[in-house]
Design a protein that fits this description.
The chain is built from three helices and no strands. It is an all-alpha fold.
Length: 68
Amino acid sequence: MSHNRHHTLYRAYRPSGFDEVRGQAQVTDVLKAAIKNKKIAHAYLFCGSRGTGKTSVARILARELGVS
């Protein structure tokens, strides 16, 4: 018996790394450089309209920093 698990689209297609994020190079390049140079800011503010990748980029950043 096979169980089909339902995945919402935003979870199924969410990028898992900075290189998979499309259309936000100005954001991902800065964050990658901060991690590479070990110069992480105290806080980051992600703002923009719906569907621009705020949550996805925040989750990737947290994963890269070892927070989640």
